[in-house]
Structures are given as C-alpha cells and as structure tokens.
Design brief:
The structure holds 2 protein chains of 2 kinds. By secondary structure, chain A is mostly helical. Helix content of chain A is 90%, strand content 0%. The N and C termini of chain A lie far apart (154 Å). Chain B has a 6-stranded antiparallel β-sheet. The N and C termini of chain B lie far apart (46 Å). The chains are: A mainly alpha, B alpha+beta. At the A-B interface, helix 2 of A face strand 1, helix 3, strand 2 and strand 6 of B.
C-alpha cells in the first residue's frame, strides 16, 4: 500500500516537472516571426491566386461564349442577307425574262399580222 | 536603236491594252443612255433591270433553291438557269405611259443607235408611218453563233428595250418559242445575211 502511494507521488512529481517545462517561457527561434508571417502571406497569395485563376477561367468562358454567339449571330445574319439578295437577283432575272418574253411576243404578233 | 525598240514595245502594249478594252467593252453592258432618263421622267411606270455576268451567276445559284415537295427542281427555274448560265449580261427597260406616243421618233432612233454597234445584224426593222412606233430586233452573230439579242419595241403607250449579251442557243430559243416568241425563220435569215 505504501509502495503504491510512493509511485503515485513519483508520477505526480514527474507530471509537474513536465508541466513546468512546458509552461516555461522560452524565446522563439530567430526569424520565426518572419517565417510565420511569410508562410501566412504565401498561403494568402496562393488562395488569392486560385481565386483569380477561377475568375479568369470563368471570364474566358463567358467571353468565348459571347464572341462565339456574336459570330454565330453575324454568320446567320449574313446568310439571311445573302439569301435575300439572291432572291432579289432571281426575281430580277424573272422580271427581265418576263419583259423579254412579252416584248418578243408582241414583235412576233406584229410580224404575223404583217404576214412575214 | 535601243530607244526605238522601247518605244515600239510601249506602242504595242498600248495597242494591246486598247484592244482588250474594246473587247471588254463589247462584252459588257453599256452605261444607260441619256435618253432613258427623259423617258423615265415622262413614264407612269418604269421597270429597269440590269444584271451583269456576276449578278446572273449569283442569281442562278438561287434558281433551284425553291424545290417542290418531291425535291424536284422547278421546271421553269431549271430552264432559266440553263439559259442564263453563260450569259454575259441582261439589260431590260420598260416604260409605260398614260398618253399615247409620249416619245419621239428621234428618241427611238437615238436609243437604237446608242445600243447598235458594227457586229450586230438587223433581224427586224419595222416602222409605222406617221407615228413614232416601231420594232427593231438585232442579233449579234459570232462565227454563226448567236452571241447577243437586242430588241427595241415601241408601242403606242409602251416602250420596251431588251439587250441580252452572251451565247444564246437558237434551237433552245426556238423550242421555247411559246415563251420567247422569236420567229425561227427570222433568226435563220439573219444568220444567212451575216454569213454573206
């Protein structure tokens, strides 16, 4: 019984010693503060860098979509305009041929009347 | 000696450029005649169509654009496409007047002379005595082949001018007689006269 009490006391003394050592004020190693600040700054910059990267990718996607959309819109507009010009040209050809046909028909009639 | 050679080369180049210009001019559409402007001012309705080779080629691309439900080309479109494929130009003017004979015989003659040139053969020339009415049909024949058609038809209230430049298939035109009404005999007669 006496032996057990002695051991407990020893453990308590040891614990106190370790606690005292841990609680003891010690000077930080030289340059610790700078290193810690530099590491914190680095971490902040990395985080900021990732944020910027994501922002840039997002902006690029938005820009590419906008440019692509505009290009597709312009292409479609040009296609419609060309189709319109083509239809107008076709209509002009038909008008020219209608007038030609009518004119030649009249010439023919006139020649038939005159017995040529 | 050397200097005269240079001058001769320059002269030859000048002639070649001039000849090319003339040849080009003959194959291209003419600028509108000043008479057309005065006629247009008097007319109640004017139709003007000017289509050069590029425009005709562009238009022909849209000739078979309208296909019917069966996917077949419109027959009229196909016939027109075949016809305009090799043409160099189409120049058509139609003036409608509310009063009879709103143009003079001098204007008619001016128009005829403006479009007429040496390589055009007269096919039909008709005038009504006392009034400024008449019909002129000219064909441009090159080696017996029809390379152009010019028609000036002056009716009492209507004046039509048609100029088509480029190879025209006489047989095809004869087949299309119902549509284009050129008397086949008249074309053959013009061919004979041009061959003389």
């Amino acid at each position: 019984m006496e032996h057990k009490d002695h051991n407990d006391e020893q453990e308590l003394v040891e614990f106190e010693r370790k606690l005292r050592m841990a609680m003891q004020h010690r000077e930080a190693p030289l340059g610790m503060k700078q290193r810690a600040l530099a590491r914190a700054r680095e971490r902040r910059q990395t985080q900021r860098g990732h944020f910027w990267m994501v922002q840039r990718i997002a902006a690029s996607i938005v820009l590419a979509a906008a440019v692509g959309g505009f290009a597709a819109y312009r292409y479609n507009e040009e296609r419609i305009a060309e189709q319109k010009r083509g239809e107008e040209a076709r209509e002009q050809v038909m008008t020219a041929l209608r007038i030609t046909s009518r004119t030649l028909g009249r010439v023919n009639e006139r020649l038939m009347e005159n017995g040529r | 000696m050397k200097r005269s050679g240079v001058w001769a080369s320059l002269l030859a180049l000048g002639f070649a450029t001039g000849a090319a210009g003339i040849a080009l001019g003959q194959d291209s559409l003419p600028a509108p005649s000043p008479i057309e402007k005065t006629l247009a001012e008097r007319a109640t309705h004017v139709t003007e169509v000017t289509l050069d080779k590029n425009m005709l080629a562009f238009a022909s691309k849209f000739m078979d654009a309208d296909k019917d439900d069966g996917g077949k080309e419109d027959k009229d479109d196909k016939a027109v496409k075949d016809m305009i494929r090799n043409l160099k130009g189409v120049y058509v003017r139609e003036y409608e007047f509310d009063k009879e004979h709103s143009y003079t015989a001098e204007e008619l003659e001016g128009l005829r002379k403006y479009f007429e040139s040496a390589d055009w053969s007269p096919m039909v020339h008709e005038r009504t005595k006392g009034v400024a009415e008449g019909t002129d049909v000219f064909v441009k024949l090159v080696n017996g082949q029809m390379q152009g058609l010019f028609v000036l038809d002056a009716e009492a209230k209507e004046l039509s001018l048609v100029l088509i430049l480029g190879p025209l298939d006489i047989d095809k035109i004869s087949k299309l007689g119902g549509n284009f009404g050129i008397p086949k005999d008249a074309v053959k007669k013009a061919q004979k006269e041009a061959g003389k």
